[in-house]
Fold these 2 entries.
Entry 1:
Amino acid sequence: MRIALAGNQNSGKTTLFNLLCGTNQKIGNWPGVTIERKAGMWLDADIEVLDLPGVYSLSPYSADEEITRSALFNEDIDVIVNIVDATSIERSLYLTTQLMELDIPVVVVLNMSDSLAKKGLKVDHRQLEKSLGVFVFPISAKRNVGLDELKNAIVNNEFVKRKPQPVFPAAIEDEIKTLEASLESRHRRFVSVKLLENDHLLTYLKPSGLTTAVARLADKYGLDAVEMFANERYRLIEAITKKAIIAIPMRHSLSEKLDRVFLHKIFALPIFAVIMFLTYFVSVGLIGQLTADGITYLIGKLNAVIATSFSAWGASPWAISLVIDGVLGGATSLLVFVPQLIVLFLIIGLLETTGYIARISFFLDRVFHALGLSGRSLIPFIVGSGCSVPAIMSSRSIEHDSERNLTILLTPFIPCSAKLPIIALFAGFFFPRYAGLVSFGMYFLAIAVIVLSAFLLKRRFFKQKPGTFISELPDYHLPHPVYLLRDVFDKTWEFIKRAGSIIILSSVMIWLLASFSWRFEYGVDPSRSMLAGIGSLISWLFYPMLGGNLSWGAAVAALQGLIAKENVVASMAVISGLASEGTDGAAIFAAGGLFGFFTPVTALAFIVFNLFSAPCVASIAAMRREFKTKRLMLQAIVFQTSLAWVLASLIGGLGTLIAQGFGL
Amino acid sequence: MKKVVMKPKLAVGASGHLSDLVLGQKAKVIALHADDPARRRRLLDMGITSGVTVTIKRIAPLGDPVGIGLRGYELLLRRADMANIDIEVVA
């Protein structure tokens, strides 16, 4: 048995899905969090549950909404569980009247929290059931109330007992029925309504009598069918809710109060800037300073213990080096940053679940609009400070092609969590007291780069008329602590797993290439190794940004960043680990070492290059999917890398010249 | 602090566009003119049908978009789209 969850955006479908299936799918408080069809199994029941992107109607407006319509229309689904948010019941039932047109039984789940009931919202669900002709179930997804009854009803086929009531006046119903009789497809009623509306997805069907039916209705109502159907649906809903709603509370008063602060005319922007400043200042600066030394010390101890026990067992020097420098060196150099990432993930999670993002995208829409973007572009940008891949995918809810493509191109500029170690390593060593400030500065620079790029590319991408911003404003929510912590744990664990898999693999490769010469002699000076040979081929590219230094090591590290951005730090740790002890900044940047030439200026330039050049392969693949063309993806990568190169070369080259001029 | 009083452009009973209203004004939707069919349909789906009562609930600090209260929820719209909605001022 298979059921599908359908409902408006932000109505709590994914919360219910997680509750039913015991999963931890992403929950956020903005319209359009779910952008894919996701399947799970209902705990202790033989029922497959589909979570679908939220929609307001079955006439899709953006790509994610198209997924929902096609899943409901084409897949074998036994029951549609329609989540109706009790606070916006009129708009929610509009979708219900459309779902009722499909050949699939509908069960309405009235999602109502206890706090709403306390505030005085009273819905007579029996009355609602009677007027709609479908099964109505009040539940509280947050408190897990009413779910067993829902399960029993579904398992026992109780929903079949109901018959949907007619939605439209007799004249319209008659036209629909006539058309239905001439069709042979599935979902005949739904298809008939869509045909009368002249839906572009169904124009291949041309039943006889359609044109005359459309003309008759236009004659009678003096409106086109789309507006007529919308009017009639809402007319029925108004009549139904008048009977079924006993009391409706005022809008969440706490939300109003919070908005007076967060959406204040003057303070809104400074508050946003302070929140972003604190995000990076606290995670990189404060937490970094508190934890980095301790973890580095522990890792050093661990490596020393392993090295001594290996030599005690009589392992050869190359084997010890493989384990210490190759396997452990790269991976452990990243573990230092775990506490910082936990804090970053926690703050992003809070921004996403409380409803703050939705407000900032409302507030900044005008600015984004002027840049050829939409207020909705803010969501990928915030999600992108965690990981670019889901961020690029979340751009799917932007319906306007130009705005969406520009957003996809710009999203990788936001420093993701894998780039954080690069900033933290360089800033922690070269600007030890201002690491937090430097990383916020980099975030600020990223915003400047985005604005500049949008300005440059606006004309290239903008070939349509301006887009819209049609969205609902959700109330603030208190985040669910369990889900929030699980989300932070999942993301952190993902980072550790990557350090233990793909990063170790890349590190071992780097170790191998850096430890052997072209004649397969082990233990050569790294500068005579195969890796040095490979790096030298491209090191000239980095000559200007490194202030006139040819460094095969830095070139290789940046190249490795294409596989995963964590590799930049890991590769530097492996390469320098061959010449010295330890994997922290002090060891990597030791004077006389391979990376001893870095100055504060060239460090900044190198960070800038790695932040803004082509993202990792996973993000490139995501860009390819969302752009839908290879050409746009290639153009985007070339643009990103060229811009990063010019910017880094300017900082590194000019900065070094200026520093020398002042005799610094 | 000096209280800024916004003078309504439209008096009660007057008709005009939704974009002409000031904060707090209430109106009844008369007709929808959006030329782009997808956009027009979206507005209808969101509940902007003729006869519905709308209230200007909030205006973004930069003047656009605008938060409109209708059917028990709040819809955010750009002024450019509001200019396509004919209304009659109720209060």
Entry 2:
Amino acid sequence: MNRYLEKHFGKLWLGVTFLFLYLPLFFMIVFSFNSTRQDAVFTGFSLRWYEALMRDTKIVNGFWLSIKVATFAGVASAVLATFAAFVLVRYRRFSGRTLFSGMVNAPLVMPEVVIGLSLLLLMVGVQNAFGWPQRGMLTIVLGHTLLGMAYGMVVIQSRLLEMDRSIEEAAMDLGAKPLQVFFLITMPNILQAVFAAFLLAFTLSFDDVVIAEFLSGPGVNTLPQVIFGYARRGINPTIYAAATLLIVSVTLVVIGYSVWVARQTRRHEREIAAATRAEMAALQAG
Amino acid sequence: MAHQWVAPGRRFVIGVPFVWLIVFFLLPFLILLYISFVDMGNDISPFKPIWDSNTGLLKLKYENYWSIFRTGDGGALFQTIYIEAYVRSIWYALCTALLCLVIGYPFSYFIARAKPGVRPALLMMVMLPFWTSFLLRVYAWKGILADQGVLNQIFMGLGLINEPLQMLYTDVSMLVGMTYVYLPFMVLPLYANLVKLDPRLLEAAYDLGASPLGAFWLVTVPLSKAGIIAGFMLVFIPSVGEFVIPSLLGGPENIMIGRVVWDEMFSSNNWPRATALAVLMIGLIVVPLAIYYHYTGERE
């Protein structure tokens, strides 16, 4: 009886919580197709908000700026995160290690407002001293890279920690130079994690409004900044249309990524199986 | 030891991220700290140098911090809008973490007890909204909770209420929005913890005469303490500094400290006070973190 209750209570709880998690997404998808501006009653199907979205130059420009910012920040984060994770995992002892690991991890817990404000103060100081750089795309990329690097580091660090060091040692014994070992052995092993770090940093950057609000200059507005501006003014179904397009693309990317990971894992397993078979055959022949 | 012979490479590998972090993390923070101790300037240079131009002596300006705690000289302590905003931020963050725990614990528990083949799909379903824009998901709640919004229409249609409930721009919308956004932060550590729970321990409890609820309270919950604490921290820390949710779903009554820092910086143009507020904001994060490390001993 109790098992029965637990099973059904469990299903109910999962169902209601998932409904809570997905309600806003369904809501935006449905009302992006509404024929009128109001968003409580569905008055009829129309694509007018998608048309309005395409004609809204602020949103379109913001979108391209966000894509650029997120790509640069994602690449820079992945590269720096690889460096930082490598340092933390492989170099157990060097002077300043405590400071280093503190600085890498701090952005994870720092309020975004504090990160944005302190970087703004740096940019203002540098600009007063050298007259460069203007606040704009570059400064936003720098801010997002600081955040993305911290998150990416966590992902790459855990992959590096579980990696089998003996393959690297074997390569070194066979005469590979450190750089060769890194690019031929280490990199392929952590590539999936580096890519995950890129995706994570890209998403963080594409989604961030607080740091961008602090670091952007006049006339430079990322997509979240444009949406934030609209959102504070009231209901605008154009935003629902933008949200629907985003939800669809994110879903596709997430599914695509998991298929890719599953395929990689299977290939990896096949290769190990093949290598094991070859070894067995060699042993038997010998 | 194997790396001794790659000293120059090693210096480069450490140097690149180290220098980057010093320039873009440590230096900005030191500037922040510096400005919080100087006098307010004028429109052209918003703050004065820390040394007195006549005497050449250093003078720290503690007034920026004092003015956060009391209004004017001899004013009542702790009755400023700043302290109110700090207290409100802590309050919202605590409520959010508790709500996430109440909803998230059974949720994670039932995912962990689901068939192993279904679990990855369920987790993916938790993560999927998390990957789509946070801002847009918060914005959607504005439409759902509005006076003429979907929820009020449904309630009135069902005859539960006669007049629209004011939910938007109140504690209700704030807590719905924050719980909604931070729920996955609670679910993931809890799930990771609960899925490792050995079912034989529960069976042993049943064999010794425990009721299912008793076994749950005496075995499952204590064993998942680490997950509960981790989830609590992961929700509390970002919620304290939340900026977007109070801006979209909160009214003037619901202002949190992040917004106050922003207003102080850009509306009042009082850089020294804005930075002093930001420094104290870090305190809101550091204190719970210190307690956390003290009890878990997870320090590196």
